[in-house]
Design goal:
Mean pLDDT: 88
Strand order of the largest sheet: 3-4-5-8-7-6
Distance between the termini: 36 Å
Number of helices: 7
CATH class of the largest domain: Alpha Beta
Shape: globular
CATH topology of the largest domain: Chorismate lyase
Amino acid sequence: MTRDLALHDRIRTEIEGQILSGVLKPGDKVPSELELMAVYGCSRMTVSKALTALSGAGLLQRRKRAGTVVAPRPAETMVLDVPDLAVEITRRGQVYGFRLVAREVRTARAEDDLDEGLASAGPLLFVRGVHCADAVPIAYEERYINLAAVPEIAEADFSVESPGSWLLRHIPWTEAENRIGAIGADAAWARLLNLSPGAACLAIARKTWRGEARITLVRQMFVAGRFELVARFGPT
């Protein structure tokens, strides 16, 4: 079960949703701090914390006297969004589950196959786990998280929600890169997915940034026929 958001996170999430959905467009003014205080019945500090987070993520520009406006967006659009698997599976009418296999804090190792952005980031949270729908494994995941950028995730309870859901709920990303291909299951994670070694899987490697900071690298291997990722897009 997902825990209730703190009020500043709720404000941030709702404004972020309006920006990413296009309700608020680049250059549009967002309500003033006083207006947001009235809407949410909260203090200026709470509103400021939400707007500062959105500004730090590159979604808002805060200007003295001119107010706060939606920041310009890059010309390109993402073909494949960053999905919350818990939400997607629940929408299909199934019960979502995440089974934690391993969790450790360590620095990068040669076998980790990381780019410079994460290899030089310092301590990383390394997580391995399995996503399930109605208790049936659908994807194996291994994830590296930059603890310098997201120190609070070190205390997150992954029996309550998966690392990906936690990041989407707490850390607004501003840029993402997806690499998609086909792969045969290796012996180690084939066992976790109840597959024969070499069985066909859809492999997704995703990097995300928040401003200039690298946030995470995740590799997910989806069992063929058990899940699909759908993207709908148009011209920029």
